[in-house]
Amino acid sequence: MSASSGRRVTVNVGGRALSLSNLDKVLYPDVGFTKAEVIDHYSRLAPVILPHLRGRPLTVKRYPNGVDGAFFFEKNAPRHTPDWIRTVTLPAPGSTSGRETLDYAIVEDLPTLVYFANLAALELHVPMWRVDGSGAPLPPDTVVFDLDPGAPATVVECCLVASLIRHELDADGITARPKTSGGKGLQLYAPWDGGDPSAYAKGIARKLEKRHPASVVSVMTRKARPGRVFIDWSQNSTAKTTVAPYSLRAQPRPTVSTPLTWDEVERCEEPEDLVFTSADVLARVEERGDLFAGATGTDL
User: What is the pLDDT of residue 50?
Assistant: First the structure.
């Protein structure tokens, strides 16, 4: 797919007419990765990414001038959002716009996914809960452990901590799946139906911090984190979102939040071992399917 800069093309996606623009615009300058390739990434991965987005209010991180340019988070669906895209109106406590509610988009299908990719929404973020058919929030259905290494610690140390968390979850009969953040960290997801996931995750984080104080920290204080892995249990808050599986990240290369096997986690020796670009992930999915199937709450 290509076009001259500024030119619009109309394409049929899943029965919807979409006007795509600036397809040859380079959004990742270091490697020449274009908007057309961003759209291609999300289009080809739709079968594995949509189950993890469906029913979840969307927050996007848009980079209209590429990863080296200005960006902004967008929770409220843009004014020009087509009426065929599902939106839900939800409370917005603490909204920077001063609004009491926001109209969130819900990514239900391929045309919606392509629509946001065309807006240079490189990163897709969703909460650990869904809405029902009428748009009412449901209880959290997923628990997440977001592992953030404090330099000089890296994702290698995150893998060691991930194995500790896995052991704790196994003892509670909970099966976790790992994925990269697409940046420097690692995340563990598991289906959840047991009350407050934030309190549970906090308990695990505090327990491991007590047992392994030299390598684990459970508080957000920056000065406590150098050389340790921060287990961010607060990502389970209903007000927070986490980058979705298979989302691109705004890094110099088009890296992806990539589902992993536990063997890959246990074998990790260098940070680069767990860096995957769009091309890598497309090949992985073709070979292995969705390694994150079952990692999040039951599909609606």
Answer: 97
> Which residue in this structure is represented by tokens 């065929």?
84
The confidence band for 93, taking pLDDT boundaries of 50, 70 and 90, is low
CB within 8 Å of 173: residues ≥ 6 apart: none
Domain spans of the chain?
8-127, 139-240+256-277
Using DSSP's 3-state secondary structure scheme, residue 222 falls into helix
Q: What share of the chain is helix, strand, coil (3-state, %, to 5)?
A: 30, 25, 45
The tokens for 128 are 């650990």
Which CATH number applies to 139-240+256-277? Answer: 3.30.70.3300
What is d(CA 137, CA 141) in angstroms, rounded to the nearest whole number?
11
Q: At what angle do helices 35-44 and 278-288 cross, to 10 degrees?
A: 20
Give the tokens for residue 293. Answer: 């199937």
Residue 108 to residue 175: CA distance in whole angstroms = 26
Indicate the pLDDT class of residue 223, thresholds 50, 70 and 90: confident
CATH 3.20.20.150 fits 8-127, yes or no: no
For 268, what's the count of Cα atoms within 13 Å in the CB-facing half-sphere?
Answer: 26
